[in-house]
Amino acid sequence: MAGAFKACQKIRGPQIRNLLDAKDFILLDCDGVLWHGEKAITGAAKVVNSLIRHGKNVVFVTNNCTRPRENYVHKFCRLGFTDVILEQIFSSSYCSALYLRDVVKIRGQVFVMGCDGLRRELDEAGIPCVEEADDPDATIYDCALAPDVKAVLVGHDDKMTFLKLAKASCYLRDPDCLFLATDNDPWHPLSSGRILPGSGSLIAALEVSSGRKATVIGKPSRFMFECISSQFSGVDPAQCLMIGDRLETDMLFGSNCGLDTMLTLTGVSQIEKAQEYRNSELTTNHSLVPDYVVDTIADFLPAFEELDEQSN
Asked: InterPro entries from the entry (predicted)?
């Protein structure tokens, strides 16, 4: 249905089975689709393992840039996703490293506003980063600015400081310095009902102070799909299904890449908002509407049970 009017159709059982029969590649978001924090969503591990064992190409596309892919493999295994390997994981931090190395072929240092996981992905790709070695009392008036900074990369940073923001603003005064962002997620839900400001909130501050707009690498940018296409052969958008929990990133990502999309109701977005977008007079909102909706990824389980019965 990609490119056509989005139906926002609630499906189950045989309809899911028919949809899976038509798809070779399954793209899955992680947070809110497969797990909440350190707790797997009921049935999610069984679904993912079954998809892989039934010959589907399964890849994971996450805007979470706080951990390197190696740590994701450990988390998958820890939560029962035993068939997942490193090559299936495409995080915004990994794709940012590929963009800097392979697309812009950066020749110089990168100033990073982000967590250690982002720095580790850049280091593995051979991207030199500016070392943070300021005195605790340093200010933008007297701190050192690194030479040869060719890019500022913004991700989730739980140790964000005013000095980091000020330094990044100074580097971006050079028009040849790239302004990149791992993702533009505004916030993330916490189990307590509170929220955690996301990378998008830091980007907004830096866009105001620098007067520039960031190039976003993660969802909903097409670049993550280009990374997948470059590492897997025969990726046909018509044979792909994007499954996520956030309309403004996952569903828009699928629409931007020409993929069918499915919303799970175990995360951020709910069906009422999807229906509101579907009925909106603004045509740009229609790209945020899913083709299909399921209550949970566990709704896939009956389709596999039917397949297993037929093979016995």
From this structure: HAD-like_sf (IPR036412), HAD-SF_hydro_IIA (IPR006357), HAD_sf (IPR023214), PGP_euk (IPR006349)
Q: How far apart are the C-alpha atoms of 84 and 58, rounded to whole Å?
A: 9
291 is in an annotated binding site: no
Cα–Cα dist 278/90, whole Å: 29
Q: Are strands 39-40 and 35-36 parallel, antiparallel or unpaired?
A: antiparallel
Residue 66 DSSP SS3: coil
Same CATH topology for 9-63+220-311 and 106-216: the answer is yes
3-state secondary structure of 198: coil
Question: What are 133-186's pLDDT values in tens digits?
Answer: 778 889 999 999 999 999 999 999 999 999 999 999 999 999 999 999 999 999
DSSP secondary structure letter of residue 214? P
Q: Residue 307 is which amino acid? A: L
The pair of structure tokens assigned to 185 is: 């997620």
Q: State pLDDT tens for residues 8-59.
A: 999 998 999 999 999 999 999 999 999 999 999 999 999 999 999 999 999 9
In terms of Cα–Cα distance, which of 30, 21, 7, 11 is closest to 242? 30
Under CATH, which number does the domain 9-63+220-311 receive? Answer: 3.40.50.1000
Tokens 């993912």 appear where? Answer: 48
Residue whose C-alpha is closest to residue 165's, from 127, 135, 139, 195: 139
Kindly state which CATH superfamily the domain 106-216 is placed in.
Answer: HAD superfamily/HAD-like (3.40.50.1000)
Q: What angle do CA 252, 267, 28 make, to 5 degrees?
A: 55
List, as own/partner pairs, every contact residues 135-139 make where C-beta atoms lie below 8 angstroms and the sequence separation is at least 24, other chains included: 138/163, 139/163
Catalytic residues: 29, 31
> Is 188 among the annotated ligand-binding positions?
yes
Give residue 282's Cα distance to chain centre.
25
* Phi, psi angle pair for 132, to nearest 5°: -90, 110
29 annotated to a ligand binding site: yes
Whole-number average pLDDT of the chain: 94
